[in-house]
Amino acid sequence: MSYSEKNFPSEPTAPKVSTSIPGPIGAQKVKTLGEVFDNRCTYFVADYSKSTGNYIVDVDGNQLLDVYCQVASIPLGYNNPKLIEVAKSDKMIRNLVNRTATGSNTRLERFVWC
């Protein structure tokens, strides 16, 4: 059994696009975003709660194969069950809530916070 089959049994088998991108809901959200933020590079608004494995879902329900994993994201898939499990730990909570301004946790900081 592959990693993907084991951890993402409900991952789509192919992209599914049922609206334009952005669709009507996404277009409205992009427009609203443009009132407070420079949205010229915004193509769609993601619904991370519905995204799974290598597929990102937009607010209109379009399932897109995310081959770049948003470039800077952790490339282990959306809603990865192992990462969710770790994120619920006290150690992770302390490191996120008490993180330094630079976001780097040195060994000394890990000793103090963990």
Automatic annotation (TrEMBL):
Family: Belongs to the class-III pyridoxal-phosphate-dependent aminotransferase family.
GO BP: gamma-aminobutyric acid catabolic process
Protein's name according to its UniProt entry: Unnamed protein product
Cofactor(s), names only, from the UniProt record: pyridoxal 5'-phosphate
Entry keyword DNA-binding: no
Organism: Ambrosiozyma monospora (Yeast)
Disordered: region residues: 1-24
Key words, A-Z: Aminotransferase, Pyridoxal phosphate, Transferase
GO cellular component assignments: mitochondrion
Gene Ontology molecular function, alphabetical: pyridoxal phosphate binding; transaminase activity
